[in-house]
Amino acid sequence: MAVRYLGAEVQRMEDPRLLTGHGRYVDDITMEGMLHAAFLRAPMAHAKIRSIDPSRALALPGVHRVITHADLGAKYSHRMNQLYPAPVIEQNKTQYPLAKDEVCYVGEAVAVVVADSRAIAEDALALIDVDYEALPAVVNIMTALEDDAPLAHADTTSNLMGKMRSSFGDIEDSFAKADHVFSAAFMQHRGGCHSMETRGVIARDDPWGDGLTLWTSAQSPYLIRRALATWLDESEERVRVIAPDVGGGFGPKAGFYPEEVAISLAARIMKRPVKWIEDRREHFISTTTQRDQHWDLEVACTAEGKILGLRGTVTHENGAYIPYGILLPNSSLTPLPGAYSIPAIDVGVDIIFTNTVPNSPVRGAGRPCGIYAVERMVQVVSRELGIDPAEVRRRNYVRADQMPYETGAKLRGGAPCIYDSGDYEALLEKVLDLSDYHSFKERQAAARAEGRYLGIGVSSCIEDTGMGPYEGTTVRVESSGKVAVRTGAASQGQGHQTMISMLVAENLGVKPEDILFESADTAKFSHGIGTIGSRVAANVGPSAHDAASQVREKALKLAAEVLEASEADLDIEDGVVRVNGAPDLSITLGELAVQLTPMSAMRVPTGFDPVLEATSFDGSSGSPIACGSNVAEVEVDPGTGEVKVLRYSVAHDCGVMINPMVVHGQIVGGVVHGIGNALFERMIYDDQGQPLTMNYGEYLLPLASEMPRVDVTHMETPSPLNSLGVKGAGEGGTIPAAAAVVAAIENALTEFGVEIDYYPVDPQYLTELIDAGSAQAAE
Amino acid sequence: MKPAPFTYHDPTTADEAVALLATHEDAKILAGGQSLMPMLNMRFVVPDDVIDLNRIDGIAGIRDAGESIEIGAMTRQRDLMRDDVIATKAPIIPAALHWVGHFQTRNRGTIGGSLCHLDPAAELPCLMALYDAELTVQGPDGARKIPFAEWPLAYMIPSIGPDELLTGVSVPHWGGNTGHGFVEFSRRHGDFAIVAAAALLTVDAGKITRAAISIGGADVRPIRLTEAETALVGATPDAGTFKAAAEIARGIEAMSDAYVSSAYRQRLAATLVERALAAAASNLNGSA
Amino acid sequence: MADTRDIEMTVNGESHAANVETRTSLGDFLRHGLGLTGTHMGCEHGVCGACTVMVDGEAVRSCLMLAVQANGHEVTTVEGLAEDDGTMSALQEAFWKHHGLQCGFCTPGMLTSLTAFLRDNPDPSERDVREAISGNICRCTGYQGIVDAALDVAKTMQKGS
Ligand SMILES: Cc1cc2nc3c(=O)[nH]c(=O)nc-3n(C[C@@H](O)[C@H](O)[C@H](O)COP(=O)(O)OP(=O)(O)OC[C@H]3O[C@@H](n4cnc5c(N)ncnc54)[C@H](O)[C@@H]3O)c2cc1C
Ligand code: FES
Ligand code: FES
Predict the structure, then answer these.
(1) What number does CATH give the domain A15-22+468-616?
(2) Could you identify the atom of ligand 1 that is nearest to the CA of residue B123?
(3) Which atom of ligand 3 is nearest to the CA of C140?
(4) Which residues of A touch C99 (CB under 8 A)?
(5) pLDDT at A583 (0 to 100)
């Protein structure tokens, strides 16, 4: 029998290479004649460019060229592509690869220097003279639509990029028949990418040879290929994009950036390869981030805490440009009923331009915000009605017997959002057990007797994962018996190689070490979509499974003829086809492959196509909905406002787990990202649009020393939407985390009546709430 | 993020370093590099010359001089944490260094670098204020000594000339039945403190006979809480006494910046002073 | 003219001589001068720890040291942690077993830091390990696999001694 890998904890195949220092990230690649680039970036948030004079920079030895918008010529004078056009985009502002005559955020690329070394290129930046005329900048989304607000772009009349709305059910009726209506308003801030590898690009242009090749630290090489080819007005076949090892992505690396265009053109102009590696300061000001959302909501419920409706408005900070369509506001609205059956929802979003870095999804995209909003309102109901938070949730969950459950919301493509499978209440009970929720009150009382403040918070989430339409795989057996496996999906650490190799090994009957895996090179696989939105397992999983099965069938069919046996009696193990009961009768997959790829004038066996190969684009027929319930236990020190997360428990259901070890890693990493959002990560701008948190002493990423151990338990409710029953797992840790942590903090500080309306929750803010609460109690 | 070009010098004696300083107008001294190198990489400082002290003999090391401990400027923070003399005579130093950056930065970072960099929230300057330590700098005219109280001139500006070099610091030894407490609040382990409080208490026959309190991070330079120190002498080391000291701490002048308000710093100072005093009272008989 | 120096250092047991520009960091020299790209630069301002290497056995940030300062010293990078025959060290094995890495970018700094830390602290608590790697940022793993790997190695070392 073939080895079962599906569901086994398999150590990752990519690790030995990475553990011994043999990864190949963009900056590790070097080539003959390569030059180095550095970007001159806007020092102010909003300004007209009057003139640029590079002459002093050009005089510096080692500097080859300074390129500005004007140097690109008429053919390359247009703005960047809109990657995700949508009707609600009223002002479609994308940026120029190099600013033309206006800069709209600190960090916008203005010129690129090409030099012998990066150090010299940086030396030259200081010698470029740009004459700017400062313009007023808009930063605060809450006042950006007022009549006298500064405008983010000089040629517009409003900072409103567009509006969108999620609305279903009879909202008026829900509110009319409610026993209670409660409201809450809160700000959510999510930070930037901060993958430990920054972005980076090498471009080589060989018009007489391979055409334009780009090595870029990216999640979606095919999207970049198309966008770049379109922008250049060239054939996609002449543009090759390779994502080598990528040191983390988390969303912001899924786009198409000005630097990818500018470096391509620089290579073309210089007729030499050009490398640009983003430095960490640039990462803060030029890699897209998520930023602020303000929510103002009302919830209608019965006296028993059954939620009838949710309505309100969201103000969403978009940043200066809109490279990424409305993915972020959209994915904030889609999950809005959360894990609950809420009959009516009506929430509108105003999308606002500000003079800050353009935004893009960061791990979870808008889902953490949407889920936070729902969970906040559930928390409000629990608090106002005095019902235990777990119990309010039980009363509102979509029940297992309601599956598939159509919420009324729409997915990004416009399809209805349908919860395919899951048992949310059972998942809650699992996490309550795991976290010792039922004995928390005793723990809390004992700690209080020692003067310590413990709190507990619950949150539940759903996650629409695995968005289609496909992520294909090719499996091909070569003459040596080795199996080439290729896919478009780029990995940024998720372990695609291991997952796909396991599926192929199991289904084809070969050893994992005989698989030669390659991915994320547009020249090696026809088309791919990208690693975003927890979509890869649910798409490439089925396609790898299917392609391997097709190759297996073909091999068995041919082997049956060669060995003169019945197919039913054949089995493949370690790359050898054997006849059951006749151990001497066998043929290797390599030998079969040779028969299917004969020499000239020889014959392909009748009834067979050449090559022992198959390609599949099998994926998920809809969006599998993963779910999770989390419990955070915290201690708050009222003396300092410090919050310590003592314990964190997760019950998660992402359907069938291909490799539980990898799922576990995704969940734990995601939770820590979510705790970072809840407590630490804050990108601060002053009111002139100057970024203030520009290094890792000021912008606080979560460290091992502050993070709790995360306990994880699973349910495996298969998704009916794909052949493996899998759902995505990449973001399920992050999505509910902030809600659980914030609820726990409030719970710890109940005696001060603390209600949190902002995250990340910083200690100063918390002490202010505590002091206000104490003062009120004293009155 | 590469440093702007500079000329590199690595003198092997302090005299040579001073001579280089005298002849190079825009030179920067490089000690452990844990503050200077980031600033060079980010081009916040762009000196013409960098004078590296790492090959100089004789300005690193710890010496027990009885009434004081003599510490060379180039002594690594790691070595301060591993030293027996310090561990027995000034245990508050390793206790505080535990909060300074990370073990990798302490492997390079020096005490002299920290005192010259003079970040308001840095732990070592806060301790030097606590001890009224005496610094020795060497210049073209020889060495001079500066009490720590006169060392910080303004925000991150020490009282040292452009042609001078810090060579060492002398930390007086507190004998008797002494306890120490160092507490700080930072967002994450290894971050600069938002506010730190350090305390030394000597207790005799149930009464405090000598006290020192210093607060880092609250203002542009470490603050000595002299009013509270005076009030503590003669008092019993108990919760009420410490609470009263904490109230004095709440009244200090504190700065505010983009991240933290002065009111919050004052509130933290009160909390932390109380905790530092309580900690000191709980480890008396250590010979801090 | 650029200020350069002739330097010599031993890296992973092999001696190297080179002429470097004095402003070049040790990290950039290892990566681009010697082609040892296992050492990663994540922030170049001393906080992320990705660039950590051992100089004379002590873990240091290679972005905060100039290459010229390593003149005459011994440097160990991630490429030097495995045995000569390629056998991974116990710590590398444990990272593999405990899923202590995802994208692998922070990994070299984690490994060099923990190699030095565990040598000096063979019996650490979980808290000790978490503080030891507080100067190494990982965006992917949530640290748990890394902490478990370090504790596992320590436990094995304790048993062995
Ligand atoms: C991630 C990280 C976290 C940190 N956290 C903390 C923290 O929590 N608390 C803390 O206090 N520090 C912290 N630091 C900084 C600390 O590590 C430095 O060691 C210290 O600030 C400077 O010491 P240095 O020896 O590295 O000096 P350098 O960086 O070499 O020099 C600092 C300054 O002092 C001058 N200088 C140095 N030595 C002399 C001398 N002998 N005479 C005259 N001038 C001199 C230099 O010219 C320079 O201006 C941190 C650093 C990093 C990278
Ligand atoms: S690159 Fe050296 S610490 Fe980040
Ligand atoms: S594994 Fe990606 S940063 Fe640590």
Answers:
(1) 3.30.365.10
(2) 11
(3) 2
(4) 11-12, 661-662, 664-665
(5) 83
Domains of chain B: 7-52 (3.30.43.10), 62-172 (3.30.465.10), 178-282 (3.30.390.50)
Task: Give the mean pLDDT of B138-145.
Answer: 96
Q: Give the DSSP letter of residue A28.
A: G
If you ran DSSP here, which 8-state letter would residue C33 be given?
I
Q: Which residues 68-127 of C have a C-beta within 8 angstroms of A?
A: 77-79, 81-82, 86, 88, 92, 95-97, 99, 101-108, 111, 126
CB distance from C83 to chain B under 8 Å?
no
The reply to whether domains A15-22+468-616 and A423-463+624-779 share a CATH topology is yes
Our answer on whether the CB atom of C49 is closer than 6 Å to any ligand 2 atom is yes
Nearest to A25 by CA among A277, A289, A285, A287: A277
Cα–Cα distances in angstroms (integers) from residue A406 to residues A306, A345, A398, in the given order: 19, 13, 10
Which chains have at least 3 CB atom pairs separated by less than 8 Å from chain C? A, B
Q: What does the pLDDT look like over A271-319, one tens digit per residue? A: 999 999 999 999 999 999 999 999 999 999 999 999 999 999 999 999 9
ipTM exceeding cut-off 0.85 for this assembly: yes
What's the rounded Cα separation, in Å, for the pair A220 and C52? 30
**Residues of A with CB below 8 A from B187's CB?**
680, 700, 762-763
A700/B258 Cβ within 8 A: no
Q: What is the DSSP string of A568-586?
A: GGEEEETTEEEETTEEEEE
Percent of chain B with pLDDT over 70: 99
Structure tokens, B124: 């070592």
Which is the closest atom of ligand 3 to the Cα of C110? 4
Ligand 1 center from residue A426 Cα (angstroms): 54
- Extract the tokens encoding A548: 């391997």
Q: Which of C 29-58 lie inside 8 A of A, CB atoms?
A: 31-32, 36-45, 47-48, 50
Q: Which residues pair with C18 in a beta bridge?
A: C7
The CATH number of the domain covering residues in A423-463+624-779: 3.30.365.10
The CATH code of domain C90-160 reads 1.10.150.120
Domain ranges of chain C: 4-80, 90-160
C4-80 CATH, one of 3.30.70.270, 3.40.190.10, 3.10.20.30, 3.40.50.620: 3.10.20.30
A710 to chain C: nearest residue by CA? C144
Identify whether the C-beta of residue A506 lies closer than 8 Å to the C-beta of residue A5: yes
Location of structure tokens 């889920």: A371
Tell the residue nearest (CA) to atom 2 of ligand 3.
C103
Ligand 1 atom closest to Cα of residue B193? 8
Domains of chain A, by residue range, sit at 15-22+468-616, 423-463+624-779
Report the residue among C40, C105, C112, C143 best suited for mutation to probe ligand 3: largest number of ligand atoms under 8 A from its CB: C105
Residue B258 is predicted with a pLDDT of 87
**Does the beta carbon of C137 sit less than 6 angstroms from any atom of ligand 1?**
no
What span, in angstroms and rounded, lies between the C-alpha atoms of A459 and A777? Answer: 29
Asked whether residue B288 carries a pLDDT value surpassing 50, the answer given is no
A122 pLDDT above the threshold of 90: yes
Percent of chain B at pLDDT > 90 equals 98
- CB-CB contact of A393 with A758 (8 Å): no
Question: What does the pLDDT average to over A412-424?
Answer: 92
> Rounded to an integer, what distance in angstroms lies between the CA atom of residue A312 and that of residue A165?
10
